[in-house]
Amino acid sequence: MSMVLLPTTALALLAWLMIRQLAKLTKKPKLDMPYLDFEDGDNSMQRYLHDAGSILERGYEQYLKEGLPFAMFNYMDASTPMAVIPLKYLEEVRSASTCKLSFNSFLNKSTVAKDIGGPLVTDRVIRVVRQDLNRALNEMIEPIQQACDKVFGILLPPSRDWTPLNGHSLLWPLVSRIMARTFVGPELWDSEEWHAVVSSYFHAGLAASQRVRDGYHPWLRWTAKYFDKDIKAIYAVRRKGEELLKPVIDARIADARNQANGQGPGFNDGVRWLVDAYRAENKPIKAEQIMQDEAFLVGASVHGITVNALSILFDLMDRPESLAEIQAEISQVHAEYGGWTRKSLGALRVMDSFMKESQRLHTPQHCTMQRRALEGYTFKDGLYIPAGTSIFLPSRLLGRDPDVHPDGAKFDAKRWKRMREEGDATKFHFASLQNDMLPWGSGPHACPGRFLVQEVIKIIFIHLVTKYDVKYSEGVESRPPDYLEHTNSIPNIMALLLFKER
């Protein structure tokens, strides 16, 4: 009898221990701050997907402006609320150790990248952008211009008739090729095969990320790769990308050896920088890993630059007087400098101010400075953030706050040009970091690619506004409403525009 009871008792004890452990792992950490939800009682996932901004607005006025944090449902990680904290914690957040408050962990967890086979953000890829890309940026200006010339000529061939095209369909392939030239190199920048890989990876990743995040318990997400069609597509395009990258990687390895022997000028692109990074760390150079690094670099930059440029285009179309000034400035600066370099692009102060004002009012991310607490974290004033909690600082609402920016609801195209003329000329440009505007984050972990974004958008608009007229389709008079998605908003990518050669 005892021989029968023994395994039964052991199984019961094991089950009890597993249940206890599961309860600990799934227990939501308690946040010592007010929790806001929808006051009418409709707190469905769909409501949070499209209307979370209204809770952020209420929390901003009621708590953040008083220096107090609040919590709300986190659509990207339903296991724990998101903590939205006021600006007074900015310095502590940006100086906190990444071992305690981590952006990488926040991004990797919110996108469930590991579970879907997507690219992980690593310190290595961030370092490549911050050091190698920014050091080489002046040399990238000419290839970026060449990409613009070619792609505009294909998508908008010379014509005196109005050509219908939505802005996203123009900007996405253009920016994709610019980023391929920057991060992959001259061999693949105009390859249709490579761009098909990038596009398929991006769209499959978006679909798989949302489906796995919403439909699988965290403990079971590892199983999704066996069932989800988009995850299977991710692995398939990864393999295709590796095949395309292998000869490029081999060429960069040979190039590094040649340079070490004093031969040749060498390649200056993302694959070469990654090869150098792995060599410096004495790690093997594998096509599958470089493919993942490239997927992160190209995917993140293409989406970010495209939505920013489209948003600026809408604002520019609504303000013909600013468009005329920018066109005149482009002609003047080009005549003065004789071409485009980072220095001459920096002289486009009217354009830069317009771009920054558009960014202030239409920041794609409502919150930035995202961090995930890897362990319990206590701020100096005693505010405690439990391990596993994601924290955010307001960006969009801070940028629109009339108590922070005079006439904050008004689009003032020359706001930042005046501030540069009246104060420090090196501040207040599009890629600047400011404590009262946080689209790029702040401190040592601020967006390392913001200077690339700045120069690419300027080159795109130099081509666009000097060679084409643009107008809305019939019946549309001004900027169409943005799409809202949780704590993000993007310009209307489906809005039809009309282009005509000038």
From TrEMBL:
Alphabetical UniProt keywords: Heme, Iron, Metal-binding, Monooxygenase, Oxidoreductase, Signal
GO molecular function list: heme binding; iron ion binding; monooxygenase activity; oxidoreductase activity, acting on paired donors, with incorporation or reduction of molecular oxygen
Task: Give the binding site residues for heme.
Answer: 447
The signal peptide annotation in the UniProt record is 1-25
Q: Where are the transmembrane segments?
A: none
Q: Which family does it belong to?
A: Belongs to the cytochrome P450 family.
- This protein is called what? Cytochrome P450
Originating species: Venustampulla echinocandica
